[in-house]
Amino acid sequence: MVKNTYKLIRITAAVSKFITADYTAKFVKAVLIKANKYMEEVFESEKYPSPKPILITPLIKENPVYPKVIIRNFGMSEKPKTPPKPIEIYGEYDFFIGMKSDIVEPEVMKAVTSLMGGVKVTYGNFEVTVKLKGFEEIERKVEKARSYVVKFVTPAVFRDPFEKIADLKTEKIRRFIPFPPFIFSVNIYELFRATYKRDVIRLAYSLIESHNNLNTITKVWYYYDKEWLPGVIGYAKFFLRKRLSKVTVDKIIEILNHANVMGVGTGRAAGFGFVEIKSKT
Fold first, then answer.
1. Which of 15, 42, 152, 276 is the most exposed place for a label (fewest CB within 10 A)?
2. Intra-chain end-to-end CA distance of the chain, in Å
3. What is the pTM of this model?
4. How far is residue 72's CA from residue 220's CA, in Å, rounded to a whole number?
5. What pLDDT shows up at residue 1?
6. Which residues of the chain have pLDDT under 70?
7. Region for residue 247 given its phi and psi (left: phi exceeds 0; alpha: psi -120 to 50; beta: otherwise)
8. Which of 132, 202, 135 is nearest to 165 (CA)?
9. Mutual orientation of helices 101-117 and 25-35 as an angle, nearest 10°?
10. Structural domain boundaries in the chain
């Protein structure tokens, strides 16, 4: 079970009208920094090395709001050639913050307190007002089960664990295949750094993918800093191998629960890799 040092909260906020063609997690980040200037250090300072102790999401209204092209036919998956149409933002939206609470919760809560009175953010050519409408701590936990479904709510881009295992000093390469060691490599590193290699291997043989994942995982092009970039959305199902040791099962459960709060892959502090994991009997 993930220790109480990790928390996930949902913020509901009223946002005045503005138009953007960029990834809306950038706006969420700007709002948090405006609400508490120390949050810029959390996001940017080398004092908080990778992986960052925080996750944010884009604005959400039923589904995440950001410029996107979802690939339904993998024979037609070319990078879009033109910029997206701007999106109008106006009304009430949710966004989520996952955090290592013993490190950043006091600063996050200062930002939330500021939002209660409303803050004004200069974003592009717009002066945007954001005011808190709701706050909720979210409990997401899975237990030992026959299988698990991982829903990629926001675009996910995975980190290759084998670069670290092989001690390669090369440029970090993004991975896109929903293979458990790719999906959860950052979570393993954060939780079990001392036994990283062993636990990457342990995860690889413990979670068995459903063949239907080939149909339920989808490629998405998202627009970030004036560039179309690829990510993974959709959902994937994994079966827990039978006759695993209690130590192995306990570690798998802790990894999944950590991902339920802190997300998966790279760029979690920039709004990527937010997941919802549920157990299935």
1. 276
2. 18
3. 0.94
4. 9
5. 46
6. 1-4, 74-76, 170
7. alpha
8. 202
9. 80
10. 6-138, 147-280
The confidence score (pLDDT) of residue 4 equals: 60
- Counting Cβ atoms within 10 Å, is residue 172 exposed (0-12), middle (13-18) or buried (19+)? exposed
Which two three-digit tokens encode residue 119?
């803050």
Query: Residue 59's pLDDT is what?
Result: 99
Give the domain 6-138 fold. Answer: Elongation Factor Tu (Ef-tu); domain 3 (2.40.30)
Q: Answer yes or no: same fold for 6-138 and 147-280.
A: no
Q: Which amino acid belongs to residue 171? A: E
What architecture is domain 147-280? Answer: 2-Layer Sandwich (3.30)
Residues forming beta bridges with residue 177, ordered by sequence position: none
Q: Is residue 190 within a helix (H) or strand (E), and if so which, with residue range?
A: helix 185-191
